[in-house]
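Inverse folding, one chain.
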């Protein structure tokens, strides 16, 4: 005869794993991610926005000319594996953004908007 403890243990074992929490998503962590939609990829956490439950992940190497950024709701993560801890991805000394190019694009967009 099964006891209440045995039934509770069996129910807990059959239950799906809890969704990832914000404590699981430390900036700089490198993860292997599987989504509920079937995507599998490796990426580094850039930031996690707790109110919206959105992760910003950078795929590819920092040396790539244009790293791919993913904005992913954490509840779409089916499972993940911690692969390691990288350097701070937002280190301003190693920032991959070309501020001059961004400002030039902004000025061009403003000029184009004024001409319309």
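Residues assigned per position:
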């Amino acid at each position: 005869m099964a006891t209440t403890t045995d039934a509770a243990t069996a129910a807990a074992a059959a239950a799906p794993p809890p969704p990832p929490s914000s404590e699981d998503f430390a900036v700089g962590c490198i993860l292997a991610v599987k989504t509920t939609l079937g995507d599998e990829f490796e990426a580094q956490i850039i930031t996690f926005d707790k109110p919206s439950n959105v992760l910003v992940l950078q795929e590819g190497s920092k040396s790539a000319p244009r790293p791919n950024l993913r904005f992913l709701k954490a509840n779409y993560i089916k499972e993940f594996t911690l692969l390691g801890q990288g350097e701070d991805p937002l280190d301003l000394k190693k920032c991959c953004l070309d501020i001059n190019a961004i400002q030039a694009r902004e000025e061009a967009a403003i000029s184009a908007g004024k001409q319309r």
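The chain has one domain: 4-90. Strands lie at 29-35, 40-49, 54-59, 68-73, 77-85.
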